[in-house]
Fold this sequence. Notes:
The complex is a heterodimer of chains A (429) and B (509). Helices cover 44% and strands 16% of the residues of chain A. Chain A has helices spanning 36-42, 54-64, 81-84, 90-104, 117-121, 126-137, 157-166, 189-202, 235-243, 256-270, 275-300, 314-323, 343-348, 361-371, 380-388, 398-401, 407-426, and strands at residues 5-6, 20-23, 46-52, 74-78, 110-115, 142-147, 180-184, 207-210, 225-229, 247-248, 304-307, 328-334, 355-358, 375-378, 393-395. Chain B contains 22 helices and 15 strands.
Amino acid sequence: MNALAPLSGLANGACDAAPVIQERGQREVFCGLTGIVWLHRKIQDAFFLVVGSRTCAHLIQSAAGVMIFAEPRFATAILEDRDLAGVADIDDELDAVVDRLLARRPEIKLLFLVGSCPSEVIKIDLSRAAARQSRQHAPRVRILSYSGSGIETTFTQGEDACLAALVPMLPPAPENASPSLLVVGALADIVEDQFARLFDVLGVAPVRFLPMRRAADLPPVGPSTSFLLAQPFLADTAHALQERGAHWIEAPFPLGAEGTTLWLRAAAKAFGVSEARFDAVTSPARARAEQALAHYRDALAGKRVFLFPDSQLEPSLARFLAREMAMRIVEIGTPYLHRRHMAAELDLLPKDAPIVEGQHVEKQLDRCRAARPDLVVCGLGLANPLEAEGFATKWSIELLFSPIQGYDQAGDLAELFARPLNRRARLEV
Amino acid sequence: MQLTLWTYEGPPHVGAMRVAAAMRGLHYVLHAPQGDTYADLLFTMIERRDTRPPVTYTTFQARDLGADTAELFKSAAREAYERFSPQAMIVGASCTAELLQDDPGGLAKALDLPCPVIPLELPAYQKKENWGASETFYRLVRSLAGARRDRPLRDCKSCNILGPTALGFRCRDDVREIAKLLAALGVDVNVIAPLGASPKDLTRLGDADFNVLLYPEIGLAAAQWLERAHGQPFTRSIPIGVGATRDFIAEVARMAEVDPASALETNDSRLPWYSRSVDSTYLTGKRVFIFGDATHAIAAARIAQDELGFEVVGLGTYAREFARDVREAAARYGVEALVTDDYLDVEAKVAELQPELVLGTQMERHIAKRLGLPCAVISAPVHVQDFPARYSPHMGFEGANVIFDSWVHPLMMGLEEHLLTMFRDDAEFHDAAAPSHLGEKQPHRQPSAAAVVSDIILAWADDAEKELKKIPFFVRGKARRNTEKFAAERGLSTITVETLYDAKAHFAR
Ligand code: SF4
């Protein structure tokens, strides 16, 4: 468990930004399995089968919380002693579980076998299992695999691994296809529809989204494809798309009015939309976003915020809070900093906001207590204890479970941060 | 390999956490990957605890596997001792670390820390949460209670209360209620554990004359050991329900050699009278399905049949360790016990039996909700609403009052039920109507399309109507009203998607 060690060199245009500090120690973050909680709702005919332990099953259940309304499209194949001791043949067992599952759920078109820490440590080859089962269940069901294990992935990286596993399945765009745009990263359906409408009016077409809502709608990809990242945690997916010849459009992420404008503008520029047209099309929505943000600026301006590492959204959130809400940033924690994808964000961040990559939760709590910020953005395990110590907190998981991107959600995003302060102001108990 | 959708129990190390989080001055160093830290939220969110559970996770990553995960464990244990200065530590592995075979116990011993360090072996691929809690408590008691010695001289007999943990069903209030009963009997409470006890307190367990075992799933192994090693008998009756509470008082009175009369007189339970009052006639023979941990399920069946006059049509448990007890109980009610930890089996059984009331865990609450059946929670696993702000024990005479209220409340009231059968076609009194005191099941339809906000007829464009449907149902009505108000104020005749969002921005706050 090392002391803080500032990195010497920083990549790509961020060299005048605040130093990035690396920290190691106890991490207080979810593993990549958590992404299943939103991905299974997004791809409506996909099923996620975790191959793991009772812990893995319990994690997803606890993260999903009260969402037990319907039979979920996820489950865990729990490894037992006989699997580990070699009494049972793991391949046979897994095939039987998959057969049973698919018989029960005939509407499933896409099945992900999701690796966990135990399946990785005992080296279960899920990609081989997926290929074998795909042969058996084709063409009705396609079976893919990825890892959401906590030894390989942190929270949102599970979505990255899932989408990266989809990329090789995408059909090739025809040789002479006209340019197309691919928006990558799970967004709430309502946000996706708003973006689709804006691109449509801008004349950017065709636009497709990954993940798709239905397994059959795999977007084609090839050298004619340009892609925008809607989420900052998609390193492997971006890499896989680039391998397929697609071009990444560099931009900050669509959080807040400014972020959304820069994000849309980067795409518009790549598709030859004139600046005048861009302004004409986006200005009503921009004005709306501004109007909505203005409601919360008084509550947030000048307040000091401390962000614990969680989803990798933290630098983008800090940029939004600092630039659009005039908040002061005490510390930006992030589980991992993709320097290339984050370069545009880092350029916009205030130069005095320290970024801490990785975590030593006890030391970070010490720093947080010493700094006495007005608002702490943190995970569910820390929120109530910090509240009890007198801090206002915002649970970061809500930022993944609610629509926050785009112009018409900018106000909602600000409200998420203003609410805990508003609540404290109201309570007199 | 077992296909699982929802689990009744977490892994055994979560059971260990329930013991650690319940105690003071104990710290748990858990060799586990980062994702396993999710378990903290069970305590801080579900139980609303205002401190983090006293657990340090090593959070090793793939890159550590090649290097030295054992070293990582040692530095984590050392740092945890320095930071928290606990009176004692427990150390162990979660499912993944179990595969690494780093031997946390041996590593911690090598550190030679200046406090007792108790190693836990919790086989994650065989056992589950309750077993893990039981084993942890047993190991702690065994390690700390020491050898048998002379009991201090006291004026009256004394006992320990064993079994209550963090995240347990109503443990917080049960303990208070039972302590009150014991006081009425003139019995001293020596130590309550694990809830609220420190490792030092556990060293005093041997001072008591006997043990009150409230939650056998957690405390039985420790109670049996104390019986053998310290000659302390322990109580077998679980004071849930009026009859069982009377039995419990009699049993304690025998062990403590006191007169039970004074405690029986404290019987302020209204259940017997409420149950006999004519209004309760309609409860007669209500068909009830019961599922939970063994202790709570068995107790619930007795109350249902003997104290409320229900008919037990199904009884089951997810606790395989206690399956025999549940089978015996089920035989008394002429039903076959359902012993399973597969949520789908339970759902299928409930659907088949179509009971009029479901008593279960939070899982059964969801099953009941889907099937449209009334339900009350009687056992862990529980959710945030099962930690009520008010005093609501499940045990003792007050517990019986709470049970009467919480089981009867979800049911249709007597007269209401009659009216329902008489006037089946009435728009409000129909089969699908919920009990009137519980509010409407279906929210009232919002007046829409031709809105009533002003004289202007407001029309919703198709795409705007569609967009509105994407808004979560619980705020949709408000969004509709706001948009219509906004449009009316501006004299718009058609509401488009743009109007919807203009209004949203206008009203944002
Ligand atoms: S960290 Fe590993 S073992 Fe724990 S829940 Fe995640 S995948 Fe499962």
